[in-house]
Amino acid sequence: MRIAIVILVVILILGASASAVHFFWITPPTPFAEPRMVTVERGESFQQVARALKAAGVIRSAAVFRLYGSLTGAARKVKPGDYAFRGGERMPEVMLHLVRGDFVVVTITIPEGLTLHEIAERVGQSGLVCPDDFEREARGGALVRALGLMPFGAEGYLFPATYRLSPRANVNDILFAMLSRFYQVITPKLEEQLFDVGLTTRQMVTMASIVEKEAKAPGERPLIAGVFYNRLRQGIPLQSDPTAEYSLDGDDAPVAVAVRTPSAYNTYVIAGLPPGPIANPGLRSIDAALYPAHTEFLYFVARDDGTHVFSKTLKEHNQAIASVRKLTQHTDGAAKASNERHSE
Question: Does the pLDDT at position 234 exceed 50?
């Protein structure tokens, strides 16, 4: 009789355990009408994570989830971030999200050659922060001052890349991400090369920013940098249109007007490099500024396709300009005639 009772108790316990496992482990919660956010803070204990998931209804039992995390070792692999759960997932699936780091991110892509003002507008479009707040901090905020980037701010140092940011990211978080990427790119090897070209970091970034704005064909970047270095050595003004067009507040002016308008950045009216970068260059332009082509060219003029004609003398340069203009007029005339034929 006693044996029968013991067996019955064991069966009941096993049955209850199986039911519990089925309920807490196999049967997922009902899918949610809207995703529910759960934030895993850096340094937070797995116990706290489990409680937050239980409170949000993502899992049925914090205790069983902790046990699963401990037994599988997954508890030590959880990544911090903001997670959106849709419900209807079993514990292993929930854990997989946490281990893989499938957290919610806001993606911001910064192309090469944007100015600080343009980057602020793009960051503002993400909805994370106000563009005016970003621009103010990037020009003279605490982080910029701590890095010694004054008085010109972070212009040139906001590295072009795609950034995956938390939806809770603030201005300093975004600035830190962009500036950190720049200093990761400037490796000790590149810093050593600065001594060979005889420039400070700011001067190098300034040169790279001009190359970035001038170059359309990637392969021409080192050649364009070589031209500018030749002009600097010979005391010839750089006469770069993008420097004349640069404006701190993003105002645009026609090139013909800009090159005749005095400013601290207009290399038609000042000698040498501008006081600071005119855009935020990518790695290829930074490389070109550090490793310019060895050339005798002093001039270049752009073709319609974005490539350039390079010249050694002013006479050759004037001939190149005339040739490019003639070709442009011929192309425009042919296009106009074609349009007129098709409209008849």
Answer: yes
